[in-house]
Amino acid sequence: MKLLHRLLAGAEWLSVRAGYIASVALLIMTIGVTLDVFARFLLGAGSKMAIEMSGYALVAIVFLGLAYTHKTNGHIEINFLIKRLSVRAQRWCRVFNSIVFLAYTMLLGYFGWKSFWTSFQFNTTSRTGLDVLIWPYQLVIPLGLLITSVLLTTSICVDIARNIRHATDESAEAAS
Amino acid sequence: MIDLHWATVTTIIFGMIFVFLGAGLPVAVALGSVGIASTFFFLQGKGMGIIGYAAWDMSNSFILGAVPLFIFMGQLLLHSGISQRLYEGSTAMMGKAKGGLLQTNIFACAIFATISGSSVATAATVGYMAVPEMEKRGYDRRMTMGSLAAGGTLGILIPPSTSMIIYGVMVEQSIGQLFIAGILPGIMLAFLFMAYIWMAVARRPELAPVFEIMAWRDRLAKIILMWPIFLIMSVVLVGIYAGFVTPAESAAVGASIALALALAFRKLTWDMLWSSLLDTVRSTSMLLFIMIGASIVSGTLGLMRIPDQMTSWVVSLQMPPVLILLAIYALYLFLGCFIDAVSMVVLTIPVVFPIIVKLGYDPIWFGVVLVILIEMAMITPPVGLNLFTIHGIRPERPLSDVIKGSMPFLVMMFVALAILTVFPAIAIWLPSTMRPV
Known about the structure:
Oligomer: heterodimer
Largest sheet of chain A: none
Largest interface: A-B, 57 and 58 residues
Distance between the termini of chain B: 44 Å
Number of helices of chain A: 6
Order of helices and strands of chain A: HHHHHH
């Protein structure tokens, strides 16, 4: 159990750091687009680069921020129905939901990796005329989903171990 | 492809989504996993390509870049102490209006809505300032809570609005036009709320105690202190309306101004900056992950031509369009009781929007109507987010107080919906006068 908690702490540390990188992407996006607007008004010279880069920054915000969002319970859930279940059932429901979340994340990561690999092999560039190689930005998708998967896997293990311990404690209590 | 009637397939897909949502799965996961499962079972894996594209296309979007930028702008303003100026300035502006601080609540929410794209943020920001003050002065509790929960919903109708960005991206309509379309209906709804307060207080003066009015000079000083809000409001709204900037650009400039203001007011610390950035990342990641899930589902539905078949079926009923529209309103009001606003939009739009277009309704007008329906959902139990937000300010008191207090405002929203249905020009006139970017 101690090892599991250590692994979970490590995954959470990674999630927070990825969240910080996503934050930096957001700051760069804000400043980049603002400078582009001012350049357009003052110098009459806007660039497509700011628009293109802000798209890539958004990819980083979404996918590198995903694990942090999960860690801080940021995802919307409709839980007024499961709240009516027993505490024990709720605990196992949480494990089941995390497993479905993990499966979905891994599938999405797999397809994200496939897109990246295709772009990498063919040196695919953006369609905006700037010819920016897109694979480095596409790599962010499987990377962010991998961090989320690591966090989900460790939290599932911790939850299962905790649930089993609770069940054992409850049955021991009932026996005594 | 498995040969099943489209109605059966639709029932199975939406049934699965509701089961997954009911089980407490994150909305994004419920949508995405059902989308993938449907592709696998009904299309025998033929449309799997949409999954990879959904993740990349949805997140690599300049238009959707407006979402984090507007959220970031709101976060910075919130931490800059500007909300305090807003409430004091609104109190000064409302002066002797019948209803006193109840009217201030609506007015402050409407003004805050111009710098925030979120209902919950609007309700919470104004609520945390208003509730202690109004309790101290002896205002009716239900009316106080109701005005804040309902006033907060203006946050998504008056631009900027996260819901409008989501709708606009999903149906490929101009976000700028949607924003501008929300202005007049937003003002109308704020007036309806204020009219209700006026009437209620005229009938029962004990709801709002009369308090001493500040001298004109003090009032003016408080109003002038609201300049940062008016500055950002002008940059965002005038910039979009005049066609100087796109919504995403206006959001970036607004956020940069907010950053500069925070620095000027000596509120910009590393902690404040990181906290604003991380909160924005969290909200954006959550919202866009939902949109990725939704685009997988809508892609699957599209490959099976379900929206087309459903539209043909609805048209074949030969019912008056207004009846179909009312049925759509009823559907949203029903769904709004059980699922949150974002999920409601992303879940239904792929199917509802083609019907709306086929019936000849304006997509921009429908966007505004949809936002009002979402607003109604936000104050309808048991899943009314604004109800919980306002209840969270005084959790020791019963939630029923907030619910009962919000109900008359819900009636006002019905009135606004009816007016907008009869007079669609209220929404579509202003965007028709816009200059394109």
